[in-house]
Amino acid sequence: MVIDFERPQDAERRELLMRVAKRIFADRGFQSTTMDDIAKEAGFTKPILYQYFPSKTDLYRQIVVELAAQLLESLKLAVRKAETPRQKIEVAFRVYFDMVVGENAAFRILFIHSHEGETAKELRALQLGLISFVEPFIDVPMSDDHRRQLAGGVVGIAEGVAIVWLEQQEAKGWPEPAEGAAVRLAARSATLAWGGLRTVHQD
Fold this sequence. Notes:
The chain contains nine helices and no strands. The chain has helices at residues 8-32, 35-42, 46-52, 56-79, 85-102, 104-111, 120-134, 144-171, 181-197.
């Protein structure tokens, strides 16, 4: 069978399979999930699943790549309305944590399970993409190497806070996130990041 993703039926089936796979991967991790699990949960046979994704690794990698692209695109759209570098960083943190809290399954895949092995390079590509995104907002006169290192630190703050929050949610049995959780996470991270950046100077 030839899969044509321009056809609504094929596109919708692929989206369903990825949505189901995302949920199962988030709950069980890459190693403990099988293609049988995904096919059964989606209501299809395993041969049909293989028509869309040649392997479990290919399916997992595609989920990571699309989630990363969605995150970067959302960040780019959001900062267009901000005027100053500080506002852009604060808006970026808010969008980032809105997605962490609102789509925690996606971030469990990106920042917890993606460290498991075969998709590590996709995670690293996202991290580097986020660093490149933040770099222009550090507007202190300094070398390009210095600026990129600091951008890496800002991204590290966001990722570290997200991982800890997800682990705390998991330890509590994945309750409904507290109201305003994303706002608080973003504000705390932005305060920490900007507090450090405003003391930076060319060394």
